[in-house]
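F.,

This is the one I mentioned.
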């Protein structure tokens, strides 16, 4: 016990010493700048952009014309003052280390009347609304120009939510439900439901990674949720769901020294340390380096279950010339964590509320864990071919080793369950290479934005699967013993029920053209030719995936109406149940969608309202014939509904992000037992809401936040015999956010709601009431 205590104190002392040393060196090597801006008639000039030339440092003057910029390197620097409609002004200053340099008052040439006219055109920053992205369309399209619906979880929102896992983050998007630690393909990852369909997180900076593999959010700048079947641009079903694509955008190196160190603690023995350090490696700022790392320890909210994770993500940017930029990133993630799944289907009760169970108990063990080691490398080369054309070459290589131990609780009735353990030893090898050419040209008076791409995807996943029933547990035996030696003996004496590997590849060509017929009307036409090869099952499939869209701006740069037709597909292996392979067609989905997008009141309000209709044809279902499961391709699913998203900044310091989705999913073709039923894990309604207010006067940086997440009921099975009840979870926060530090308290699940996440057949209890305390030092 003394050793453990000394270890904890040792970590805290080292952390304190590190922060103090960084703060000392920072104070010794950098300086601050402050000053005031006036108009020609001696009035304070508000909302003027002030930047330090050749850096990413800058600010905007306040209502009184004051500005302040911290952490500037000593020596001669050039300040640039600019505002739309006014002549840019530059001033050279001398920054002295460890002191604040007071700049002589700056006078702009225009008078106050002219300046006020210009200020009306300046947008206030809405920190939850940052939808400019190069990944959704793979073309430089603004949100109002894009016929597809997407949501962005910004870095600012991630910081405010004080989330310590990706699972908690995703629930801030309209239409996402049942986010949980998912199973499948020999690994543990995040599983969720979007527009009525299962989805994973397997896209990173627009390119695929290993699916069903966990990671840490320490290196995430923002998360993009791209709605609808997106096979045309993103291809393989291993990274693209019929409901949409989840794309993680990572933190990139920048041209000045900076970063942060943070520590989070709280309920369930949470102890999380993260570090983010960025620095140029040469004087010309052409070689940039950034490192993000995390160490995360946490006990389950129940009686048993330990998580021990660490993560490291170095990244390097090399600006080889004015035309060529090279980026290389790596991620190393090691994890040991439990995964317990409840299998109540067939136990004879109608609702999870009928289960005789206490949320205090996991029925698991601290000794039964999933062990994962993953190593991923990403490389990108961007070359500017001309003023209008760019070449992008991207490589992703992902590897992970899994020693997975799923604990399945197969309930025999409302109280007792067999503990079935499935051990899976597997390796994931995924390689994806993309070559994109992006550019613009005119045909007569028609402006075109064109994307032409080649995509190669390869995956190999050897595996060995073994399972056995360890014992029986239940309400009268809620804390059963687990003997690791007994488990090892039973595992060694049990033959694997399946040994094999996935060995698949695909090669695709895609093209997308956006034509601007006028400055308000644009049309998108896209097409993908995909060739899929499954070496292990000896079959090949080819498919054509089209995408069409149109946008008309009713009010230019403020309100647009849009419509799209989108397509997605899944390659289906032959059915082998009869002893002879029976070839099946690719399963495919078509979506028709329309709606309206608005960005109003100079950026203070952004909203999207859409209605979609998705039909999945040639859907595969499984039937049991005398104990032999076979695939039959006669199904058809329909998923339709509407979504609304609102992001607002009503007054300075007050921010809101909210969403509501209504989904109607149904089997429209198939076996009589499911015809007309709702597919499992597809709730009718989802609601997300988060609001915060931060003071700009008085105790500057002091703020509060409040959130609601509400999910409707869903079925655990396609036959609709077992219900997973809906739930509403409330959260709140109290924080102070200053330029050099942030302190936050986050209260999650304040009403101690006991609820389940549902992935069909299997459900999982979710965290009860808990507190997270976070401390961050910025430099």
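My design for it:
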């Amino acid at each position: 016990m003394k050793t453990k205590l000394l270890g904890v104190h040792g970590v805290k002392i080292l952390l304190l010493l590190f922060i103090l040393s960084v703060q000392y060196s920072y104070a010794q090597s950098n300086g601050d700048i402050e000053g005031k801006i006036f108009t020609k008639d001696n009035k304070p000039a508000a909302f003027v952009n002030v930047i330090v030339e050749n850096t990413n440092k800058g600010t905007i003057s306040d209502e009184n014309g004051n500005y302040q910029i911290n952490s500037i390197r000593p020596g001669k620097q050039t300040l640039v003052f600019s505002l739309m409609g006014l002549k840019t002004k530059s001033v050279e200053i001398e920054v002295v280390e460890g002191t604040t340099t007071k700049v002589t008052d700056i006078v702009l040439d225009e008078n106050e009347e002219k300046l006020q006219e210009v200020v009306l055109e300046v947008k206030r920053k809405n920190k939850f609304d940052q939808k400019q992205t190069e990944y959704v369309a793979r073309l430089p399209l603004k949100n109002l120009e894009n016929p597809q619906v997407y949501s962005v979880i910004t870095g600012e929102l991630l910081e405010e939510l004080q989330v310590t896992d990706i699972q908690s983050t995703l629930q801030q998007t309209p239409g996402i439900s049942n986010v949980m630690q998912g199973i499948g393909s020999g690994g543990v990852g995040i599983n969720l439901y979007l527009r009525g369909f299962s989805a994973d997180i397997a896209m990173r900076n627009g390119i695929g990674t290993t699916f069903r593999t966990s990671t840490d959010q320490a290196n995430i700048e923002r998360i993009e949720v791209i709605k609808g079947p997106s096979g045309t641009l993103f291809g393989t079903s291993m990274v693209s769901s019929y409901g949409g694509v989840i794309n993680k955008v990572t933190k990139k190196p920048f041209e000045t020294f900076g970063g942060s160190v943070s520590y989070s603690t709280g309920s369930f023995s949470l102890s999380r340390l993260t570090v983010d350090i960025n620095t140029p490696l040469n004087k010309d700022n052409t070689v940039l380096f950034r490192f993000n790392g995390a160490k995360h320890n946490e006990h389950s909210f129940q009686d048993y279950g330990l998580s021990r994770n660490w993560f490291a993500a170095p990244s390097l940017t090399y600006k080889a010339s004015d035309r060529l930029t090279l980026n290389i990133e790596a991620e190393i993630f090691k994890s040991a964590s439990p995964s317990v799944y409840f299998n109540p289907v067939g136990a004879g009760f109608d609702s999870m509320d009928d289960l005789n169970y206490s949320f205090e108990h996991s029925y698991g063990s601290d000794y039964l864990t999933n062990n994962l080691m993953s190593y991923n490398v990403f490389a990108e080369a961007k070359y500017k071919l001309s003023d209008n054309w760019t070449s992008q070459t991207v490589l992703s290589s992902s590897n992970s080793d899994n020693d997975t131990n799923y604990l399945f609780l197969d309930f025999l009735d409302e109280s007792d369950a067999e503990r079935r353990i499935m051990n899976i030893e597997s390796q994931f090898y995924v390689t994806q290479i993309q070559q994109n050419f992006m550019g613009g040209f005119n045909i007569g008076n028609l402006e075109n934005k064109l994307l032409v791409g080649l995509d190669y995807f390869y995956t190999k996943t050897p595996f060995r699967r073994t399972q056995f029933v360890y014992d029986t547990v239940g309400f009268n035996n809620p804390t059963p013993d687990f003997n690791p030696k007994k488990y090892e003996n039973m595992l060694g004496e049990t033959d694997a029920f399946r040994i094999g590997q996935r060995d698949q590849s695909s090669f695709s060509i895609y093209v997308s053209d956006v034509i601007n017929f006028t400055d308000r009307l644009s049309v998108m036409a896209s097409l993908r030719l995909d060739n899929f090869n499954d070496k292990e099952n000896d079959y090949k499939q080819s498919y054509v995936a089209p995408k069409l869209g149109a946008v008309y701006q009713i009010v230019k740069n403020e309100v647009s109406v849009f419509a799209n037709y989108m397509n997605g597909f899944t390659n289906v292996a032959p059915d082998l149940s009869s002893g002879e392979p029976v070839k099946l067609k690719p399963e495919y989905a078509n979506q028709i969608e329309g709606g309206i997008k608005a960005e109003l009141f100079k950026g203070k309000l952004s909203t999207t309202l859409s209605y979609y209709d998705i039909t999945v044809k040639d859907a595969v279902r499984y039937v049991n014939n005398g104990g032999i499961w076979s695939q039959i391709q006669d199904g058809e699913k329909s998923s339709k509904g509407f979504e609304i998203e609102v992001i607002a900044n009503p007054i300075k310091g007050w921010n809101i992000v909210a969403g509501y989705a209504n989904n109607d999913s149904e089997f429209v073709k198939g076996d009589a037992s499911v015809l007309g039923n709702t597919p499992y894990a597809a709730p009718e309604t989802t609601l997300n809401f988060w609001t915060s207010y931060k003071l700009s006067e008085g105790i500057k940086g002091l703020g509060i936040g409040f959130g609601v997440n509400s999910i409707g009921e869903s079925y655990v099975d396609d036959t609709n015999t077992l219900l997973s009840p809906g739930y509403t979870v409330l959260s709140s926060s109290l924080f102070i956010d200053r330029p050099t530090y942030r302190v936050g308290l986050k209260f999650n699940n304040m009403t101690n709601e006991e609820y389940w996440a549902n992935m069909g057949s299997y459900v999982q209890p979710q965290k009860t009431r808990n507190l997270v305390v976070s401390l961050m030092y910025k430099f």
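The chain has six helices and 43 strands.

Talk soon.
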